[in-house]
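re: that complex we talked abt at group meeting.

here r the seqs, copy pasted straight from the sheet so there may be weird spacing, ignore it
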Amino acid sequence: MPKKETITSLQQAKGKRKIVMITAYDALFASLFSESADIILVGDSLNMSFNGKADTLSVTLDQMIYHTQAVCNGAPNTFVVCDMPFGSTNTKEEALANAVKVFQQTGADAVKIEGGCNRAELIKHLTDNAIAVMGHIGLLPQSVRSEGGYKVKGRDENSFEQIIEDAKAIEEAGAFAIVVEGVTPNLGAMVTQSVNIPVIGIGAGKLTDGQVLVWSDMLGFFEEFKPKFVKRYLEGAKLVKEAVKNYKQEVESGVFPAQEHTYK
Ligand code: KIV
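got the structure back, here u go
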């Protein structure tokens, strides 16, 4: 079992080794991923892949806490980050109270907050009060309704410069790492070079300090849609359907349970 990462070891990784991050929402998968992942993110993406909703906006803080507890139970030796859900960080007082609740009720090592310069003061309030914060800039899934869709960032000069400013402001506010999502590879590389903290990319090219993927995407369980940046390392949905079809046939034909599955 690899040694549990800390904020210090993750920051020391910058420029030396790539950071591997994956989402998980329950103890079973967290335990399976813990052998390989440096960081497990309890992403609010669970509202889509786990709860079947169209976006992340309706997940509640209590639901995030429940799933983070489960992940911490399954992967006690892995660095766990809990996503602060939409609406839980509207003011700095509310953000601190909610982040304290996450720290007190779960074993999470850090929280993640979406937003750039506009959240820097709020992030500073948390880091000043002993909450470890991972930033999240670029494409912000919690802004999907206000922005009218998921839009790749960095294709025009304004958004390119804005995102670099966002990264610097978040570093200045005391965040220990940043996720940069849905940006051109050039911008992913520029963001990575412009700060001294680790930058973990998702759909941000290969020149970031690490990568994160949503587990149900990378293991092929989410069938409806495959974003361009996702590589499927398993055809999970296909394998599960085949296995359950096989079970159905064996139950119906009486092949299962066999002698070895039956008490004497
Ligand atoms: O919610 C999530 O899974 C995330 C990742 C996409 C980084 O924020």
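couple things i noticed - The longest strand covers residues 133-138. The chain has a mean pLDDT of 97.
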